[in-house]
Description:
The structure holds two protein chains of two kinds. Chain A has three domains: about 1-75 and about 150-210, Rossmann fold, CATH 3.40.50.300; about 85-145, no CATH class; about 220-280, Alpha-Beta Plaits, CATH 3.30.70. In chain A, helix 3 (about 90-100) runs parallel beside helix 5 (about 130-145). Chain A is α/β, with parallel strands linked by helices. Chain A is elongated, with a radius of gyration of 22 Å. Chain A has helices at about 45-50, 70-75, 90-100, 105-115, 130-145, 160-175, 190-195, 215-220, 235, 260-270, 285-290; strands at about 5-15, 15-25, 30-35, 60-65, 75-80, 150-155, 180-185, 200-205, 205-210, 225-230, 240-250, 250-255, 275-280. By secondary structure, chain B is an all-alpha fold. Chain B has one domain (about 1-235). In chain B, about 80% of the residues lie in helices and about 0% in strands. Chain B is built from eleven helices and no strands. The longest helix of chain B is centred in the N-terminal third of the chain and has 30 residues, at about 50-80. The interface of A and B includes residues 73, 86 and 94 of A.
Amino acid sequence: MEHVLEVRSLVHRYGERVALDGVDLTVDPGEIVALLGPNGAGKTTLVRNVIGLVRGESGAVRVAGGDPKDARIRRRMGVVQQSVGFPRSLTVGEIVIGAAARKGKSAAEARSAITEMGLTGLEGRRAAKLSGGQQQRLQLAMGLVSDPILLVLDEPTEGLDVEARRRFWATIQSRRADGAGVLVTTHLVEEAASIADRVVVLDEGRIVAVGTPDELRRRLPGRRVEAWTTIPIEEIRSLDGVRSAARRGERTVITTTDSETVVRALLDLDPGARDLTVATATLEDALVAITHHEEMVS
Amino acid sequence: MNSRIFRYEVRDELLAIVREPAALFFTVLMPVAFFALFAAMFGGEGGFGAGSLATYGAFAALSVVMMNPGISFADSRERGWLRVKRADGTPLSVTILAKVVAALPYAVFTLAGVTAVAWATAGPLDVLQVVRIVGVLVIGALPFTLFSLAVGAKLSPSTSSAVLNAILIPSVIMSGLWFPLELLPSWLGKVAGFMPPYHLAQLAVAQVEGGTIWSHVGFLAATAIVGAAVAVMAYRSADV
């Protein structure tokens, strides 16, 4: 089966700084791949390469076997980008119909994308006046109008409430069922885990982990120990069985393969340690342990 | 396919003018008000006639096509809207050409205002002559839009505004559009021959006084070609 997206050994530099350092990535038709990684990991640079806005200095990006710099290939992609400000003067209807024109689609197809994204009744409203959630849906409507074989979504649920988020993913999943491939970046790890077929973790321009959400969870520490303690963080990190340790406010969060040993050591070192909890580690804990970054923010 | 995209791009640009007419109004107001002021101060009995319409009109048209397109281009780019258009596969030439066409109403309204002032202060003008002057200035000014877009493709809206002013004002002075070249140092007169605004104004003046036009047309055509190349290179390498 031909990959709908294939990234091979992609290297991208900004001057001296290496943003992508030999990235390999594929997305198959009917597959949702979530791209996770801490701030500055290179996610947006990768997205910009995939949608043909920029080209890395070496390596290759192929979308449906073609070059994403080629306008014909771009028209087969649906894209939701971060921080897009709509023109003040245009309405929702005009913007989607304009997007349809750029993709070689009719006004009727634009209207059906508006309906699909639940924007009916807002066609005459100025896009810049919409709420954040409505603007995200508008961008997705622009993306869906091309009947894309590849959807590329950069932080698409930013600013959406729970209900809007649920509807958003329902739409994406129905497009997946129709055979579209989806590449999505998000910092909401559990959200990615619930919708992605595969999770790819990017850190400092390299792919550090790939797998289904369950596979990644299994590779993981297993337990998450939280406590209120005065033990220096470096000392905790050097304890047996500790995979990662970080301060979150007043609490210390530790991921470990052996929670019993860690708890015993904590109480030995700091008899005053309190508010101890032990829980099953989440996917986010796994990613923190893999990347050694405290938070998986975008 | 591209012609349909182009139509929608132009539609979007024109809707922006129609829906926010204040931008057009105040952009046009400035050069027209200055012309009225000059006419009142220096016009004397005869007012400012067709000759002034040609030279001052060249400045007025350039001041709108040099400033607005670049600043609004920089604004769309900073909003990320150009990134959306580019990701959709809109050809560079279509985006640029639509912006050039969008500058047309600005040039037309500005020249209409300047013409009205000339008419009011100097008495009835030869209609055919006015049409020829305005026609030459509108068409001749459009290529200058390309340089404005090149600046807007690279700089922020406020920096674009400052840089475009810094290009516009000296070049119109050196071209003799504000003060007659005879009043300026003689070396400036020699430089003027290399300034595109000089040729635009002279082409308009030739509609009144006659004389050769082809060297001016040739110079403006070369300006358009260079402008197109500069705009395409700037937009292609722009960080959208």
